[in-house]
């Protein structure tokens, strides 16, 4: 019989005896919120905690998103490791396995984000409008963060398991995400919460496209206003609040950018979306040429996770033809690149995937795209040209053994 292991963020008591610390960058600067240490779970049944529960879920998602962007960047062939940080080596080898405890950090962070958002939604649902000011808006925000947590699980993990339940497939996780986004849209519409509404429209269109619900994806994407962009905040308040890619690439020089991004051009013009700096030196391992990304310029640089740009690329993929060519060329104009001439339906689709590779560089999107569109053998497999080992051939993160051993409804992967 399995030993029942209950880990923070995975079970119904995840908030019990837990000090929740959240640091969020708001419009007026850094907001630090902390619950009292050893807060018993029953205290969180107090409706006055409702705003803090949602803020905590957002903060946990933001930290998980930064970690995922870093770890998925290795598996998806955006980053190449400098082999100087022991805990990063399985990711750098693109060979993370279920027994590797290094994978627990990412899984725990995402699990906490997912649980806290779902738990906040459940608690606030049980309270009344009289007990919680702005209750409907808070419900929409909690559902939003749950939706994005499920989305990342679906895009990055081979399978999922939640609240000691049975394993979920990628499709099942995408449907869970869609359900949460739909709840967010309903609440945000009722309260005129435009930020939550537009973020949820992007998220729902994103998962609908992966579910091949193209008409629904198109309808949602078309609702996103021009210039909309949503980011997760980063700061120097603590290590888990830092932009992980900037910290590891620029500050510690413990990783570089994969050679496939070293000279990303279009018709001979350097693409600024993936612009790099060649330091003419080596990473911390003394073997890997050090190239620095320029997208994130400080520990506090935020990470984009929903945008009008993404909505436009979804529209391009669904509509195809000249409509897609026009959208691609609008992106090229913004980037100062020559126009795309178009071509066959397949050539246009291939260019859309390439635009996604460039637009969402180091934003945690490439792994999900490779799983959706293919190309692992072209972009991520093979041999490390500087350290010499063969990369692993994984295409998704495995459910860690720590989850399998603690969940009676999940068996080890075959």
Q: What does the model show?
A:
This protein is mainly alpha-helical. Helix content is 46%, strand content 10%. The strands form five sheets. A two-stranded antiparallel sheet has the order 1-2. Helix 3 runs antiparallel to helix 4 and helix 7 runs antiparallel to helix 9. The longest helix is centred in the first third of the chain and has 26 residues. The chain starts with 20 loop residues before the first strand and ends in an 8-residue tail after the last helix. The N terminus is likely disordered.
Quick overview:
This protein has 414 residues and is mainly alpha-helical. The chain has 14 helices and ten strands. It has a domain at 22-27 and 51-310: Serine Threonine Protein Phosphatase 5, Tetratricopeptide repeat, CATH 1.25.40.
Distance N terminus to C terminus? 18 Å
Q: What's the Cα radius of gyration?
A: 21 Å
CATH C-level of one domain: Mainly Alpha
Q: How many β-strand runs?
A: 10
Number of helices: 14
CATH architecture of one domain: Alpha Horseshoe
Shape: globular
Placed side by side, the strands forming the largest sheet appear as 1-2
Structural class: mainly alpha
Largest sheet: 2 strands, antiparallel
Beta-strand percentage range: 5-15%
The CATH topology of one domain is given as Serine Threonine Protein Phosphatase 5, Tetratricopeptide repeat
SSE order, one letter for each helix or strand: EEHEHHHHHHEHEEEEEEHHHHHH
Q: What are the SSEs and their pairings?
A:
Layout: E1 21-26, E2 29-34, H1 50-75, E3 79-81, H2 89-92, H3 102-126, H4 135-156, H5 170-191, H6 194-210, H7 214-221, E4 229-232, H8 244-251, E5 255-257, E6 265-266, E7 269-270, E8 276-282, E9 289-293, E10 303-307, H9 308-319, H10 321-335, H11 345-359, H12 366-373, H13 376-379, H14 401-406
Antiparallel strand pairs: 1-2, 3-5, 4-10, 6-7, 8-9
């Amino acid at each position: 019989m399995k030993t029942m292991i209950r880990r923070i963020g995975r079970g119904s008591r995840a908030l019990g005896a837990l000090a929740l610390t959240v640091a969020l960058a708001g419009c007026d600067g850094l907001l630090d919120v902390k619950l009292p240490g050893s807060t018993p779970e029953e205290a969180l049944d107090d409706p006055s905690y409702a705003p803090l529960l949602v803020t905590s879920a957002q903060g946990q998602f933001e930290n998980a998103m930064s970690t995922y962007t870093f770890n998925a960047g290795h598996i998806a062939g955006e980053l190449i490791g400098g082999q100087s940080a022991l805990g990063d080596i399985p990711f750098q080898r693109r060979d993370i396995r279920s027994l590797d405890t290094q994978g627990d950090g990412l899984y725990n962070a995402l699990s906490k984000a997912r649980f806290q958002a779902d738990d906040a939604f459940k608690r606030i649902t049980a309270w009344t409008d009289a007990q919680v000011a702005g209750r409907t808006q808070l419900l929409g925000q909690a559902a939003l963060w749950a939706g994005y947590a499920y989305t990342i699980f679906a895009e990055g993990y081979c399978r999922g398991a939640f609240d000691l339940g049975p394993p979920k497939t990628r499709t099942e996780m995408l449907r869970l995400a869609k359900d949460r986004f739909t709840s967010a849209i309903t609440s945000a519409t009722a309260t005129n919460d435009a930020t939550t509404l537009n973020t949820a429209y992007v998220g729902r269109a994103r998962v609908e496209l992966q579910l091949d619900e193209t008409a629904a994806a198109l309808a949602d994407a078309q609702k996103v206003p021009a210039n909309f962009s949503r980011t997760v905040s980063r700061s120097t308040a603590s290590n888990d609040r830092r932009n992980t890619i900037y910290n590891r690439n620029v500050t510690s020089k413990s990783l570089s950018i994969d050679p496939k991004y070293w000279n990303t051009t279009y018709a001979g013009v350097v693409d600024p979306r993936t612009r790099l700096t060649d330091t003419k030196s080596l990473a911390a391992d003394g073997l890997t040429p050090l190239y620095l990304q320029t997208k994130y310029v400080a520990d506090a640089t935020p990470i984009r996770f929903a945008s009008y740009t993404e909505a436009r690329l979804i529209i391009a993929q669904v509509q195809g033809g000249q409509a897609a060519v026009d959208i691609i060329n609008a992106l090229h104009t913004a980037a100062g690149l020559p126009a795309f001439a178009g071509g066959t339906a397949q050539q246009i689709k291939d260019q859309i995937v390439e635009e996604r590779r460039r637009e969402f560089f180091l934003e945690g999107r490439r792994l999900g795209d490779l799983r959706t569109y293919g190309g692992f053998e072209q972009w991520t497999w093979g041999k490390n040209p500087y350290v010499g080992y063969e990369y692993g051939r994984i295409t998704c993160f495995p459910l860690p053994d720590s989850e399998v051993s603690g969940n009676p409804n999940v068996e080890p992967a075959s």
